[in-house]
Amino acid sequence: MDNPIKNITTDFEHIILLITEARNRVYTKANAELVMLYFNVGQIVSEKVANGNWGDRTVNDLADYIIKRQPFLKGFNRRGLYRMKQFYEMYSDEGIVSALLTQLQGIDNKDDKFVTTLLTQISWTNHLLILTKTKTSEEKLFYLYQSIKEKLSTRELERQLNSATFERTMLGNKFGGVITKHLPEGIFKDPYVFEFLALPEIHSEDDLQQALIKNLQNFILEMGKGFTYMGSEYRLQVGNKDYYTDLLFYHRDLQCMVLFELKIEEFQPEFLGKLNFYLEALDRDVKRPFENPSIGVLLCKGKDVEVVEYALARNLSPALIADYETKLIDKKLLAEKLNQLSEIFYRNEE
């Protein structure tokens, strides 16, 4: 017999779902209109200034005129108008558009309608963050691509910007032969930043593991989209012995398990032997037939790049040796590190 109270609750929840979906559609439509408005205004200001018809004073006069005619309208002051101009100029550049289309669609031809449709997929707040907190076009493209592909909220995007995800992703992926082995690009970082743990400078591996588990939501936010937590101290039985891994995840897009092993000291080559042992056990005894080989990530408190390169040279398992930091890193230091790895990479290519 049907439960009338349960049926009513189900009906109520259905109505709440309809309200939520309608609200989301209204927000999406309003955001698209707002972003396109700013793009179009930016185009007018940019072209007038470029042609010499308008100067800085004219832009000021425009801001004053808009405030007089639309006193409750926000964002159209002098600063806002120049942001719109910058926004238009950034995404009307042929090279930027072509690079973005290639990343998202695998094509390199320009399609204005499609590009402007792309730009409306993220909020104006996110666009402002990208415009104001990045310097190079490559960096802007990276965060725009991430925002569209991963549907980043403002909070998620701001954290990526503050923790220098662009530089760390370049370190973790661009020079794959140096610090990674058999890994897809754009998924893993180096170094990882765990400023949310509030760990003391001196801590144990158990302290690190327990802190990451307690702050699991922030840990997954740092790792990126697609990770699902499977557990800590995951038991693997090999022969007559039990072995316990540190942190085990599943990645939906890669369709494989990802094992994070934690070390509070600098990388040592022998760490790889244990990691490969765990990966082999996972693939033989836990992995399902349709899943891909497991990936291992060794999180160490520092590493010598040359030692890592030697250690990974004959390693067959998909693996990453990454640093972890308990404080936000200065972007300048990351840029210097990126340059150092670049020199090693190109020296090895000669």
From TrEMBL:
<dbReference type="InterPro" id="IPR009362">
    <property type="entry name" value="YhcG_C"/>
</dbReference>
<dbReference type="GO" id="GO:0003676">
    <property type="term" value="F:nucleic acid binding"/>
</dbReference>
<dbReference type="InterPro" id="IPR011856">
    <property type="entry name" value="tRNA_endonuc-like_dom_sf"/>
</dbReference>
<dbReference type="InterPro" id="IPR041527">
    <property type="entry name" value="YhcG_N"/>
</dbReference>
<protein>
    <submittedName>
        <fullName>DUF1016 domain-containing protein</fullName>
    </submittedName>
</protein>
<dbReference type="InterPro" id="IPR053148">
    <property type="entry name" value="PD-DEXK-like_domain"/>
</dbReference>
<feature type="domain" description="YhcG PDDEXK nuclease">
    <location>
        <begin position="187"/>
        <end position="338"/>
    </location>
</feature>
<dbReference type="Pfam" id="PF06250">
    <property type="entry name" value="YhcG_C"/>
</dbReference>
<dbReference type="Pfam" id="PF17761">
    <property type="entry name" value="DUF1016_N"/>
</dbReference>
<feature type="domain" description="YhcG N-terminal">
    <location>
        <begin position="17"/>
        <end position="168"/>
    </location>
</feature>
